[in-house]
Amino acid sequence: MKSTLGAGRPGFLWAAPAAVFFGLFAIVPLLMVAVLSFASWDGLSDPEFAGLDNWKKLLDDPVMIKSLWLSVLLTLLGVVVQTPLSILLGVWAAGHQRNRAVLSAIYFVPMLLSIAAVSVLWRAVLDPNFGVPAQATWLFGDGNLFGMQSSAIGVLVFVSTWQFTPLHTLIYQGAARAVPQVLYQAAQIDGAGTVRQFFHITLPQLRNSIITSMILMVVGGLTTFDTVLILTQGGPGSDTTISAYYMYQKAFKSFDYGAASAIALLLVLVSTLISLIVVRLSGYDKMRSTMEGL
Length: 294
Known about the structure:
Subcellular location: Cell membrane
Keywords: Cell membrane, Membrane, Transmembrane, Transmembrane helix, Transport
Helix content: 55-70%
GO cellular component, one term: plasma membrane
Family: Belongs to the binding-protein-dependent transport system permease family.
Shape: globular
GO biological process, one term: transmembrane transport
Strand content: under 5%
């Protein structure tokens, strides 16, 4: 029988197909965007080198500054709302009772729908003329939830939570089921109740998953586009014009692909920076165990 003690990690050739795919469809386009961010291009004529003009215009553009802050705000609201909700639902769904399995299957249905389909659905449901708000003016006032910045932002946060919470719930469900049961058994012997077990055993054991989930939320929140395009079109005015949507306006309405590329590169840098800060502050980069939370 051949010994496996000397077996090491698979060679680079095993990762070569994925590396080539990632290089062609991620690294190369990113480099092209970086180059275009220093050029002036309308999409038809040849690009012309513009130096830092695109970046200077963005820094002096009040709409751009506002869109960046709106992107950060929507991302923070998404993290604050979705994280506790996902943790609670994930831990609950980790149970093995039949009713939990059925309800979890129904709850995960939004994961099967595209962002565009979900946005169109909620746009119809929340339509100020024919939707639910128009029939319940006692609750929604004039029924136009898209007419004020606060309510429009609330709609965007709600729709994103409705669609993406199941994904993060699934992450926490798998992590919660991986927690060693011996920890709960020891806690029961010591007289710890369900609430105390959750805060002193379950939550600490989910630390790795919480960081992973938060990074996904940050990257997804800063790059979201479809929801704003279909639900609010950046309105009212520019009150929900986030950076990704402003990039779309620059590229496909103003035909200023240089400025749009600069916005895209800026989003990549901001997303990367925030993700690194989260990893650094959480100590996630120092964890070496392959077991969740240990």
